[in-house]
């Protein structure tokens, strides 16, 4: 290394330190709340982190160009929706291109139309839905429940994620069974665990829990213990009453 490029290297190291310090300040500025594990208020915290949880903000909407094949997907989807009688901005709340993934946040009333275009448009050809995942964000008033659909185009080796939200007060999302029949069992499981009602599903019944089970145990407001195990006649004690082993 010559003496001429040492100051430049020092400047790069200083810039790296500044970026790290900026990232640390941003992390510290995020709102922190103290609550029970997974947001529960009905039993003790068993995580060992003193009930502290950081609520990170939502990933901001991405601006064009999205990169990779994402712009082509968005353009083809927009053209297909126009031919179907609805616009891209009408159906899609926001687009997030982050960490090599493309996520389309879809308004629930347009979910079926968006899925059909993604499946049937020759330039898109997302033939396969890989499943349905549920999430529950207690603090996001009006959009607490989410359903996430990862789609795969086998022909083009491309992936896209659809994310749909619904409020706790009206937990209804249209079923995609008519578009992707593989969603049948996945939507049943998501309803079983999260209570999302998939309208139009042919048989929305329990798939994991007993048929007479009360509530949906993957929700963040579901108690962690003290649940009567109805089909066994036993109970699971709350975390703060369980035996501890040293």
Structure characterization notes:
By secondary structure, this protein is an alpha+beta fold. The protein has a domain at 61-205: Beta Polymerase, domain 2 (2-Layer Sandwich), CATH 3.30.460.80. The chain is built from five helices and twelve strands. It has helices at residues 6-29, 70-84, 88-91, 111-120, 183-194, and strands at 32-34, 52-54, 92-98, 101-106, 128-129, 133-136, 145-153, 158-166, 172-174, 197-199, 227-229, 234-236. Strands 3, 4, 5, 6, 7 and 8 form a six-stranded mixed beta sheet that branches. α2 packs across α4. The longest helix has 24 residues, at 6-29. Mean pLDDT is 81; it is low at 1-10 and 44-51.
State the main characteristics.
246 residues, Beta Polymerase, domain 2, 6-stranded mixed beta sheet, two-stranded antiparallel ribbon, 5 helices, disordered N terminus
Secondary structure layout:
Layout: H1 6-29, E1 32-34, E2 52-54, H2 70-84, H3 88-91, E3 92-98, E4 101-106, H4 111-120, E5 128-129, E6 133-136, E7 145-153, E8 158-166, E9 172-174, H5 183-194, E10 197-199, E11 227-229, E12 234-236
Parallel strand pairs: 4-8, 9-10
Antiparallel strand pairs: 1-2, 3-4, 5-7, 6-7, 7-8, 11-12
Helix pairs in contact: 2-4
Structure, briefly:
The chain has 5 helices and 12 strands.
Rounded to an integer in angstroms, the radius of gyration calculated over CA atoms is 23 Å
Decide which structural class fits the backbone: alpha+beta
Q: What's the story with the biggest beta sheet?
A: 6 strands, mixed
Coarse shape? globular
Low-pLDDT stretches are: 1-10, 44-51
Order of helices and strands: HEEHHEEHEEEEEHEEE
Q: What is the number of beta strands?
A: 12
Helix content: 25-40%
In CATH, the homologous superfamily of the domain at 61-205 goes by the name NADH:ubiquinone oxidoreductase Nqo5 subunit
CATH fold node name of the domain at 61-205: Beta Polymerase, domain 2
The proportion of residues in beta strands is 15-25%
> Gap between N and C termini, in Å?
56 Å
